[in-house]
Amino acid sequence: MGCSASAPRSGMEQSAGKQGSEPEGEAAVCPAMQSLYDKLGGPAAVEAAVDIFYKKIMADAELEPFFEGIDMNKQMRKQVAFMTFAFGGAPHYGGRGLYAVHKRLITEKGLREEHFDMVAGHLVATLQELGVAQNLVDEVVGVVGPTKAVIFGDGTQ
Asked: Where do the segments described as Disordered lie (predicted)?
């Protein structure tokens, strides 16, 4: 019960410079069995995406103020850990919940759902810049989109 054909590498995986023993453009795992994390290219690809993603956010005059005084290296490590978990690359996430993490930004800095949409737009632009296939971008949006209700909810989710 194996896969008869190898899966093509994602654009993110290729952009992140992942190298392996499999033939050029192929991976050894059946695509139906891969997590979204693996389809995107694994750790190097997620780290590359987070780097570009935060460069876009920090260049955005409407979003940059939310990160004033934040250790961005630490923030980026947290984001890599969260995305690794959210996309199926880790069984557990050790960070704080999304509501708790964003509550101060909402109450003290005026974070609104419109800002979430802007951040999500930067994530999509990052994935597109990295050459990620549209079906995988759509899958990422399907994972990230529902977190809006958690962040701006009442903390019970």
From this structure: 1-25
Q: Which tokens belong to 42?
A: 């694994």
59-113: pLDDT as tens digits: 999 999 999 999 999 999 999 999 999 999 999 999 899 999 999 999 999 999 9
Select from 51, 93, 56 the least CA-distant residue to 75. 51
Structure confidence by residue, pLDDT tens digits, 113-144: 999 999 999 999 999 999 999 999 999 999 99
Q: What are the DSSP E strand ranges found in the chain?
A: 7-8, 26-27
If one counts every other C-beta atom within 10 angstroms of the C-beta of residue 148, the result is 15
Which residues, at least 6 apart from 90, have a Cβ–Cβ distance to it below 8 Å?
37, 81, 84
How far apart CA 50 and CA 72 sit, in angstroms, is 11
Domain extent listing, the chain: 7-151
> Angle at CA 75, nearest 5°, toward 99 and 68?
85
